[in-house]
């Protein structure tokens, strides 16, 4: 009896109130789904993202940032160092690391150029006999930022040399990179650090959201890659070895010009993404570009768009009158009712497409569709129970 | 009209880019001056190659590394007797061979996408999953490849073969995997064609990329033996 009266109470809630509550629920769920900690994507949705991404790439301006970045591959610049056990005293063999002498040479080239910044997306944690010389060359030119990592205990592992650092960790979901996180446990990512150093951006973290220069942004979001690995292999951007800079000789500094130099292992440090394989270094550059172009920002117009979309979605989902109008037409009714979940899915599809093309934001639709289908089922069940 | 627009756009785009010469083999003239390391070129500079074997490597300020050689022009089915070309007509991007990394995950795609070059023998890379690979001509009789050093190879293919069916063996049965496109080039001819490139491209992956762009896929092991 008591349960039935609860159901009667729910059924009596005014439609406009249900609409608002449902819209707020959808907005909250969307914000929650943005979080990189939450696993939310399934195969078919990944396919959808890949297709939308491919269509969008057709309309982009290729090589747009080729005057802003130059990429240096260190995959073939290696040196051997001694490898010690946990005690740090017993030699276990040798390890391969990026050659510090080559990196020092690179800085000497940059000194003569107008380069804006140097980014080392490399592991610089191991000690070598060359470190003091490397450090003094780092001190002689700037700005330089280097990669750091978070270990399993959540502690930061900084490079052996003293330079500002950004987290180079890339989060993957079943081996696929999708979402970029700007701030993890109070530490800036390499992409965010680039914005902080290059554009004097100020970031305040607050859970799922953050604030960049006072404006609200997503801390985790699906990254739209403006520069892909394919662009690099198709000579849309400059990727050179340090040897190539040596070959350029006196022209090297003019060649670099006022670009930002990003150094990383472009051959081995790669991840699967919706753009095929992509280098970790490119992910950080794309994250920086996303911040610059406002992809992560939660603007007024984006909020209006989301609220209106969710209101429309809630209206269709909660309002059965439209379908009831066709009650008398047996055949139409038979086909219309099962089509409702599809209609919701298609509207979600249009919504996320518009969001991606206009606001550069991809929105998860699978779980939202499931949620609305669940609400629809509850509605039907309550009606059946009360009739 | 549309073609003209595209050509004009490309032309204007490349015109703004400076190309730095980092390597020269042979004698190449630009404005009656021999080009040498550290010279700068634009895409519309005219080059006169002394011989068909001459080549240069340039690095573009926006797009990276290219090889300049008259062969890049003749690869498109055209040839010129006086060996005078615009830079943009003889430049070919230096890129790494993508296939050498990707075949493990999509072997069928790898077989279907490429044209394979064979010299004295046809050598294909072996995947971790596949133990046996076979081939047949149109008659349908399947012959197994020799499995050695993580490769599948055979020296039984006639020079005139243009297509070959490739099979994998599962449950003692041959299953058709792909129909591959083949091109025979004698190893002596290939060695001569690549003699200049060997000295210009020391990185094996870039060398594989160049060969793939110009001739077709050639297994790195064969390429290594040609270099030696």
Describe the structure.
The complex is a heterodimer of chains A (387) and B (228). Chain A has 387 residues and is an alpha/beta fold. Chain A has 14 helices and 20 strands. Chain A has 2 domains: 121 residues, no CATH class; 225 residues, no CATH class. In chain A, strands 1, 4, 5, 6, 7, 17 and 18 form a 7-stranded mixed β-sheet that branches. In chain A, helix 1 packs across helix 14 and helix 4 runs parallel beside helix 5. Chain A is elongated, with a radius of gyration of 26 Å. The mean pLDDT of chain A is 85. Chain B starts with a helix and ends with a helix. Chain B has 8 helices and 17 strands. The N terminus of chain B is likely disordered. Chain B is α+β, with helices and mostly antiparallel strands and 228 residues long. Chains A and B meet through helix 8 of A and strand 1 and strand 7 of B.
Number of strands of chain B: 17
Characterize the main sheet of chain B.
Answer: 5 strands, antiparallel
Low-confidence stretches of chain A: none
Radius of gyration of chain B: 20 Å
Strand content of chain A: 15-25%
The total domain count of chain A is 2
Number of beta-strand segments of chain A: 20
Which structural class best describes the helix and strand composition of chain A?
alpha/beta
pLDDT averaged residue by residue of chain B: 82
| H-E string of chain B | HEEEEEEEHEHEHHEEEEEEEEHHH
| Spatial extent as radius of gyration of chain A | 26 Å
Count of helix runs of chain A? 14
**What portion of residues of chain B is helical?**
25-40%
Decide which structural class fits the backbone of chain B: alpha+beta
Measured distance between first and last alpha carbons of chain B: 50 Å
Assembly of the depicted chains: heterodimer
Basic shape of chain B: elongated
pLDDT averaged over residues of chain A: 85
